[in-house]
Write a structure and sequence with these properties.
Structural class: alpha/beta
Radius of gyration: 17 Å
Largest sheet: 8 strands, mixed
Helix content: 25-40%
Shape: globular
Order of helices and strands: HEHEHEHEHEHHEEHE
Number of helices: 8
Distance between the termini: 47 Å
Strand order of the largest sheet: 3-2-1-4-5-8-6-7
Strand content: 15-25%
Number of strands: 8
Amino acid sequence: MGPGVIRDAHGYPALRPDLDLIAGMVEPQVRVLDIGCGDGVLLHYLDREKGCDGRGIEISQQGVQESVARGLSVIQGDADHDLDFFPDDAFDVVVLSQTLQATRRPDMVIRNLVRIGRRAIVSFPNFGHWRCRAHLLIRGRMPRTRGLPYAWYDTPNIHLCTITDFVRSCAHAGVRIETSLALDSRGRVVRRNAPDGYANLIGEIGMFVLTRDRV
């Protein structure tokens, strides 16, 4: 852990603002699956502060090792191949934060999220943000912003979308949007009820709570 890491009042690494928002949406003592959990900081917070029963999937070996070092139950895997093995309604909440754009079949991943969990919390960089549009229009090059810092040739993001694209994909998949937020690059809310053109223009990150209509 580097010396510049910001810590909370208890000495633990502070959550990123967007993860702090997600943590606020998770009820105490529920079952949580965090897909693409990184170093496990969100799961660790939910376990410590809310008594949640957390599990994680992380593609990088380093992330898995750091999560396990926190005492978390995290396995190495990826959303494209491993979600099919989870049974229906195995978790109360499934989290997919800033990972959807790196999956090969985001439509199938979205369907699996609401199959596995009663609710799914999803966040992703919004390619419809005005800076991305201006970058393409004026420079004629793939945008590089705070939320999308990679060059086109070394980016892990293979399926970028806009907030409008995501909303339409949910409708096509029969997934209900329970809550929607547009965030700035620091994860601060700039607009609630995000499925509209204005949110698509000003939001650098889209965050949605999804559910599936049970039969």
